[in-house]
Amino acid sequence: MTELAAMPTDWNKALAVVAHPDDLEYGASGAIARWTEEGREVVYLLATRGEAGIDSMEPSEAGPLREREQLASAAVVGVDKVEFLEHPDGVIEHSLELRKDIATAIRRHQPELVITTNHRETWPGGFQNMADHRNVGAATIDAVRDAGNRWVFPELLEQELEPWDGVRWVAANSSPNASHAVDITDTFDKAVESLQAHETYLAGLRGVMADPDTFLRTMAESVGKIFGCELACSFELIEM
């Protein structure tokens, strides 16, 4: 991450596709808050309900609770459309089914920008990434092309979902190959508040990830130093 360009601003609608509740809050929500304040629309699509994310709680109880926390979290940053798929938390596969589900959402919402999680093997700093993140990120990139091809998943045409090839970029948050950034100095407090909305999930964590302000501030300050502002959020921008 030696140099970062500013993220494009000539777009109006984005679809954010991630694996779990809290994935967007641990990185991208500050940028999303800025974009919604500027009048852009952002829709969330989550592959799971995060039901396997709390060790002390049965999935049948954790799933609905984490869904409620995600809805509250999204509202903090100006997002009122949150959709959940039914893929199993912790064991998501990069499958045709997942690609189809994401392509369906892309055709329905017709975004210009698609935001996703880091699909690389590691996080910045070298820490190992988990399979759910990698598989959802990679499937999202594939699904963008699937959404624009009439003959991939042709059954979607029967649902009156015409191909959409208007996605111009995929932006992978917190990638070790980050190329772009957004100044989130003015929306950082909303980023912290949106992560704090995952109250039950945070209560089961230890260390720095259980402290939203410290975790997010440390990350945003390091990106900001490179980008030339106080606090920033990084993305790997892939042109489609």
What is shown here, in short?
Helices cover 37% and strands 16% of the residues. With 240 residues, it is α/β, with parallel strands linked by helices.
- Specify the biggest β-sheet: 8 strands, mixed
Beta-strand segment tally: 8
Tell me the name of the CATH homologous superfamily: LmbE-like
Radius of gyration: 17 Å
Could you tell me the mean pLDDT?
96
Placed side by side, the strands forming the largest sheet appear as 1-7-8-6-5-2-3-4
**Total tally of structural domains:** 1
CATH class placement:
Alpha Beta
User: SSE string, helix = H, strand = E?
Assistant: EEHEHEHEHEEHHHE
Report, as a whole number of angstroms, the end-to-end distance. 22 Å
Percent range of helical residues: 25-40%
- The share of residues in extended strands comes to 15-25%
* Unreliable residue stretches: none
Shape by Cα distribution = globular
Estimated structural class: alpha/beta
User: Can you name the CATH architecture?
Assistant: 3-Layer(aba) Sandwich
Q: What name does CATH use for the topology?
A: Rossmann fold
- Helices, by number, come to 7
Keywords: Zinc
Pfam family, one: PIG-L
Protein name: N-acetylglucosaminyl deacetylase, LmbE family
GO molecular function: hydrolase activity, acting on carbon-nitrogen (but not peptide) bonds, in linear amides
